[in-house]
Amino acid sequence: MEREIVLEAKGITKRFPGVLANDNVNLTLYKGEILALLGENGAGKSTLMNIIYGLYHRDAGTIILKGREVNFASPREAIHNGIGMVHQHFQLIPVMTVAENVMLGSEVTRGYGLLDVEKAAKQVRELSRQYGLEVDPDALVEDLPVGIQQRVEIIKALYRKADILILDEPTAVLTPQEVRELFKIMRDLASQGVSIIFITHKLKEVLEVADRIVVMRNGHVVGETSPQESTESSLAAMMVGREVLLRVHKEPAKPGEVVLEVSGLTAYDDRGSKAIDGVSFKVRAGEVLGIAGVQGNGQTELVETLTGLRKPHNGRVTVKGKDLTGASPRKVTRAGTAHVPEDRQKYGMVAAYTVADNLVLNTYYAPPFSSSGMVNHKAIEEHARRLVKEFDIRTPSIFTSGGSLSGGNQQKMVVAREFGRKIDLLIAAQPTRGLDVGSIEFIHQRIIEERDAGVAVLLVSAELDEIMSLSDRIAVMYKGQIVATVDASKVTREQLGLLMAGVTEGVLEPEVTAVI
Amino acid sequence: MKSEPTPANRLVGIAKSILDVIAVPILAVITAVVIGSALMFAAGYDPILAYSGLADGAFGDARGIARSLLNMTPLVFAGLSVAFAFKGGLFNIGAEGQLFIGAITAAWVGFAFDLPPYIHMPLALLAGSLAGAFWGAMPGFLKAFTGAHEVITTIMFNFIAINLTSWLISAGGENMPPGPLSDPIGRQHALARTPNILDSAKLPVLVEAPGRDIHLGVVLALVVAAIIWFLVWRTTFGFELRMVGLNPSAARYAGVNVAMTTILTMAIAGGLAGMAGAVQTLGVNHRFESNQSIGYGFDSIAVALLGQTHPLGVVLAAFLFGSMNAGTTRMQRWSDVSSEIILVVQALILMFVAADQIIRYIYRIRPRRPEEVQQLSAGWGQR
Predict the structure, then answer these.
(1) Residues of B with CB below 8 A from A375's CB?
(2) Which of A101, A106, A86, A99 minimizes the C-alpha distance to A128?
């Protein structure tokens, strides 16, 4: 079958200091197809896309766009030549309307520098109709849900006449229902001749939506396949370069006494609006309670309130019967709580500190690491050598700065510090965000090991797969409240998806609901 | 995991990282000196003669060396003040004000009490540092509890300190009573100053040089630099202080009381600057005059930055600046070059250290990785 090639990258090589990010990479994109570019973080997907998009300059190789060799100096030129990119973090201005956002940078005017918003709104409406991208051009972006904001980004690209669309991890922020809608839009676009490059590391999605799959690893393209001839585990093996356990093996939980008890907890976010609203739950020793929910429904504030980083407004928190409502982070840590923070760069580590120092970040003050106000470097180094070995942290030395490790190893460092001491309660927020499959596998296993050792685990994650495979019970958060608590072995993805969107009526059969 | 590096490898690594730290300051000094030469040359002077005069004035004889060391001393204390605050993520522009408060307090204790020397001198020194510590703690307090940026508040506290001390020692006038700490004898000649301190409060002289006695403060400066190094790198407080400076969010996560650490950091920084003032009063001037130490507090910012905020670096930078200032008179006499050119050279050094990208670009030095860079001062809303 002869298909029209719209974009061809040949022998792309890009070297960063100390890293070969792209090594002689070849990629072909046909007209009207959805090409999934699959790979772990650091595999070179983003580098390749940024080269095509004109953000980086390649060291070697050629890019042929619609039969013509091109050499973009900036994204502006790429956009001009019909390449559009939707980034993971949207580049929208919240206080402006959809139409204003769409025309930003290529404004429609009626001369004399006067804007013609009506004309832009009309064009937005036309695009919406043509591609089935429903959106109100006059709505303010800040009032729109994330899924719709993403549509605005896609319309922005189409408005600039893009016929090649690069979507960078587009599903990371969406509910399962929104993901389904996005996939429908992607298929519509493709059927009308738009070519889509879909960057992701989620295997299920690739199998669902892609026409063709290209897998990258360590800066190389390691294979090309199609959804028909691959499975999740075959893709994972290609991505990682070895067989991977996709689901964690775990025995049924043996819950013991209640460790964490939260009742009627209320707290405000930084802007002063109610972020968690009368939340109550219990976590027992030896079980994992997963908190599911779309990002921004109060999970972050819940974890911060439990770990002492945010003051509660109302309610009560006890750990093993000890009142820790509004206690300082130090008090919480000393009560036997480990906290894997959501944002490891901001809270979990000091980038300029050595690996050794980062491994005692919240225990440095106590013996054996300190005595009478003096830091004992020898003890800190010994401790670091032990943990680096036990948790397989890949670092040139324990004196390397934490910030120079890869994301996966930084997280292993945080996990090693938190799991490496005697704990009763583990609060893990997004413990595998942005990590490669290998690290995810490792961290999941460690979490289950902790559970089996009798630790009570509170797991907060935006990844449904993670929640479903690790949890024994799942509480769903929506707008600051827990709308349902369910038995993890009985609930379906679809049910969770609806609950996460706030739909509770008639979703659950009674036997799915778990006892709190 | 790679094997642990051998001792030899580690030594090379340490040497490399030291070179990495000192390369920019050294090249900044060289570049500034070269540009200074070009300026002199363009104005029709002989730069070699000028710099020879500078070197001779600073090191040519015992008096020159004494002058250099005496100039260095307050810069070490005040430079440590700025550098120490910087380690805790705070930009102390207020060393000047803290120095004034320390100087006048030491002078007051020095003339108002009559005590045996072994009590009087330490007491005056201690009082000066505590007053400076108090003056520094206030902006720290404001930062910790109201979020007021320390750069703004320390500048304001400088104005308060300079004008407060100037009132305290004013000689008065026709309808204006003299300041409470002013010197009765000075008043008759309309001189704004405190009375002379008693001999028992003076810092002991270690080496006599005509008019340039080297006092105990010179040694004290080096001892304090060593203490600060120990405090920052060897104690739990130092561990917390650096954590707050590098990543206040992580410090909070780790259970550090960020507010208390901020106040304590500013108090210690203020105490160091206060000690600079006290040492000048007790060792050199033997009284407080409002124009006696203008500029040390500001030069100390340059010294701290040139010294890469490391205590040893601060000592070396203070010695460089101190000897430059000591040699200017002879430079002017030898070569007719105005002594102000040294201020230009010092300003260029500061500029090149602060904007180190210029030096890194000129000499092709690898830019620093983001995690190695501690921001000098975060903008509004960044912290």
Answers:
(1) 234-236, 238-239
(2) A99
